[in-house]
Amino acid sequence: MVEAWYMDESQEDQRAPHRLRPNCAVSLEQLRRLGVAYRKLDADNYETDPCLKEIRRAENYSWMDIVTIHKDKLPNYEEKIKTFYEEHLHLDDEIRYILDGSGYFDVRDKDDKWIRISMKKGDMITLPAGIYHRFTLDENNYVKAMRLFVGEPVWTAYNRPADDFPARKQYMKFLAEEAQ
Questions:
Q1: Which of 72, 67, 55 is nearest to 135 (CA)?
Q2: Is residue 163's pLDDT more than 90?
Q3: Maximum C-alpha span of the chain
Q4: Which phi and psi (to 5°) does residue 69 adopt?
C-alpha cells in the first residue's frame, strides 16, 4: 500500500524522506480529494496483467513506454534529475506505474503544502492535469517506470508559476468543489 506524508521544510538531499516530526500521514482519501488516483498492480506480470489491460482500455491509455532512471541508464542523468524535481504542472494527466525500484512524487495540497508520496514496485499513480508536482528518486537511486498517455505523448512541463493555463484553472475549480 502506498504511503504518503506532509514534508518538512528541510533543504537537505531531495532523496531523503523529509517527514515532519511527528510524522503527519496522508491517507488515500486525502490524495483522492486532490485528484490523485492510486492503484496497486502486479508489476512482475505487467506484460500479461489483465488488470493493467483493463485500466488501459477503460482510461484510453493508448500509448506507453518504459523508462529507467539510474545514472548508468539515463542519458544526461544529473540534468534530468534536476528537471524532474522542479515544481511544475502538465496540461494532461501524468500516469506512472512503478515496475521496479522506488521514488517519490511530491504534490501540493489545497493549502500549497508539500505531500510526499512514496512509490514502490507495483504502485500506479495518476496525477491530474494542472496539479503542481515534482519527482525524485529516493536513496536507492533507481526506478523503472511505465509511462502511460491518452493518445500521443506530450512531455511538456510548465514550471511554476503556471496559473493561467486552462488545465490549472480547471484543477483549481475541482479543488474548490471538493472542499464543499
A1: 67
A2: yes
A3: 48
A4: -105, 105
